[in-house]
């Protein structure tokens, strides 16, 4: 597929998944307009990583949207207590984790849709993944299909064309496959961050769910994680 420099809006958090999605969209020929969100999350180092990923990824534009954090209360990533640590794969696969942020992807995609309509873009990319025990309801294919339908009903560009598309290429990929595809496309994994409770300079804690899933992905892919090496 070649998008022939068509504009697309991408949600870029600075994580492994969104960096890979950016590389995929660029490889497909899209002119990428990135958006990241500051909602006073405890892992705000991801915004530093997002800028680095976008600078390296050749985006056309990158904006960081500041949001009132109060609607996102009750999450371990905002004001809801400690981040779960040292959980087994079985524990990570059971229920919705404490790191779930209320309606986060619904809000983020709505902003992205508004940006896309302003640009005349029909394509929005998001790096959600429903395989590696995320447990988040807003990372499911059913949600994305529903949002895409809403986008085509709620916007002028959608009504006129019926062609607004929400792309989630990693939805059913394993973390190892994500690592390998990013490696193939030249993603600098050392620029990314995954940790929910990073230390100084973004050093990963190695114990939260996100760190453990990332470590497993690199191990299964047979690739050394440059972030672990740099922060060790």
- The number of helical runs is 9
By DSSP, the count of extended strands is: 5
At the first level of CATH, the class is Alpha Beta
Mean pLDDT: 94
Q: How many angstroms does the end-to-end distance come to?
A: 40 Å
Strand content: 5-15%
Number of structurally distinct domains? 1
- The spatial strand order of the largest sheet comes to 3-2-1-4-5
Helix content: 40-55%
| CATH architecture assignment | 3-Layer(aba) Sandwich
CATH superfamily: HUPs
**Sheet with most strands:** 5 strands, parallel
Poorly predicted ranges: none
Shape: globular
Structural class: alpha/beta
Element layout with pairings:
Blueprint: E1 7-11, H1 16-27, E2 31-38, H2 45-57, E3 61-66, H3 89-92, H4 104-119, E4 123-125, H5 141-154, H6 156-161, E5 165-167, H7 175-184, H8 209-221, H9 226-231
Parallel strand pairs: 1-2, 1-4, 2-3, 4-5
Helix pairs in contact: 1-2, 1-7, 7-8
Describe the structure.
The chain is α/β, with parallel strands linked by helices and 232 residues long. It has a single domain (7-231), classed as 3-Layer(aba) Sandwich (Rossmann fold). The protein is built from nine helices and five strands, in the order E-H-E-H-E-H-H-E-H-H-E-H-H-H. The protein has helices at residues 16-27, 45-57, 89-92, 104-119, 141-154, 156-161, 175-184, 209-221, 226-231; strands at 7-11, 31-38, 61-66, 123-125, 165-167. The chain has a five-stranded parallel β-sheet with strand order 3-2-1-4-5, sandwiched between helices. Helix 1 (16-27) crosses helix 7 (175-184).
